[in-house]
Specification:
Oligomer: single chain
Largest sheet: 6 strands, mixed
Helix content: under 10%
Number of helices: 1
């Protein structure tokens, strides 16, 4: 005699899509308004200005009045050590040796990615810092240069890895097109 309360395996409903669905990825922090400072650990980072135009350059030997051939986008930042007793070793974002994970990234609202632009080992952007010790309560400026964004750009997303300032995580800024000044 068959037990009416017994459930046959073929009648059990399974949600096979739920079982095989990948685990959700961790949510990234929101983009922070570029008009406000952003704190990460002992570092406060502020975007001072964003300039579209020819980049002022300084030669290691000789001429200090050069500029880039092309119009580019330069993001000028100020790094502040908010620690009361810890010195920070800053390794500039433009001076990063890896081209994969620890470099500054710039994208726009059209999903375009803009590369950082360097000018060789003997030419530096005026205002750029390669290495610096930033003492407690002190600030240090830097300049980061990228390809020029397309004209229809409404917003830019700037990602700066925290390892440049000895912190885990990243600085994530949203830069409105209205903040970009032409020079």
């Amino acid at each position: 005699m068959e037990n009416k309360d017994e459930v046959k395996p073929s009648t059990i409903a399974t949600n096979s899509s739920a079982a095989s669905a990948p685990a959700p990825s961790p949510k990234l922090p929101a983009w922070h308004p570029a008009t406000e400072s952003l704190q990460l650990g002992n570092i406060s980072l502020k975007i001072l200005k964003v300039v579209k135009g020819k980049v002022p350059l300084k030669e290691s030997f000789g001429n200090d009045n050069n500029e880039s051939k092309d119009a580019l986008l330069t993001v000028y930042v100020e790094i502040k050590n908010t620690s009361e007793n810890k010195k920070i070793e800053y390794h500039g974002w433009m001076n990063r040796s890896s081209i994969i994970d620890d470099r500054a990234e710039l994208t726009d609202n059209h999903d375009n990615k803009y590369r950082m632009v360097s000018f060789g080992s003997t030419t530096r952007v005026r205002g750029m810092t390669t290495f610096a010790s930033i003492y407690p309560g002190k600030t240090n400026p830097d300049a980061i240069v990228f390809e020029e964004p397309v004209e229809s750009t409404e917003t830019l997303h700037l990602l700066l890895p925290g390892d440049a300032v000895g912190e885990e995580g990243e600085f994530r800024f949203e830069i409105p097109a209205s903040m970009i000044k032409s020079e």
